[in-house]
Design brief:
By secondary structure, the protein is mostly helical. The protein contains five helices and no strands. Helix 1 crosses helix 3. It is elongated and about 65 Å long.
Length: 163
């Protein structure tokens, strides 16, 4: 076993678990909780969440998980570590899907929500109706990608340890 490849893979598993857990929490608690609120509270809550989530801790897991998975894949090309490679590549691809969906769909929707906000003149119902359903469907896609990526990396770690 290569110590560096093992450390990087463990870090990838941890980062993937954190980001999968975050998106899972949105799917099963944050969004259902906001769904119970009136339109003004929903829009205000999402706007505040969108500001709060832009921090270093989020960036470490969101960008770190696919980056660490890619590095782990590169380190596992050695013949004695190849058993883990298919799992790690699958994890990387699924985490990349999560990242692409977020950047291509969820972030633009967040930006549109912000752009549609006009203080007390905001039509909160209309703004919410353009955002909520689409954002939640794509959040589910990225949640599944994140969980799948995490699971695949765990499979890679098991294969690595058994090699």
């Amino acid at each position: 076993m290569s110590t560096l490849s093992e450390i990087v893979l463990i870090a990838a598993v941890i980062a993937a678990g954190l980001i999968a857990g975050l998106f899972y929490a949105y799917t099963c608690s944050v969004m259902p909780g906001l769904a119970r609120a009136d339109a003004r509270t929903y829009v205000t809550g999402m706007r505040e969440i969108n500001v709060a989530i832009l921090n270093g801790w989020f960036a470490l897991s969101f960008g770190g998980a696919p980056l660490l998975a890619a590095v782990a894949a590169a380190l596992h090309f050695k013949s004695d570590l190849r058993a883990a490679l298919p799992w790690i590549i699958a994890g990387f691809v699924l985490l990349l899907v999560m990242l692409i969906v977020t950047m291509a769909v969820n972030v633009p929707l967040n930006n549109a929500l912000e752009a549609g906000f006009d203080g007390d003149n905001t039509d909160f119902e209309a703004l919410r109706s353009k955002f909520e359903g689409v954002w939640e469907r794509w959040n589910l896609v990225r949640t599944i990608g994140g969980i799948g990526g995490f699971g695949a990396l765990v499979g890679g770690l098991i294969a690595h340890v058994r090699a």
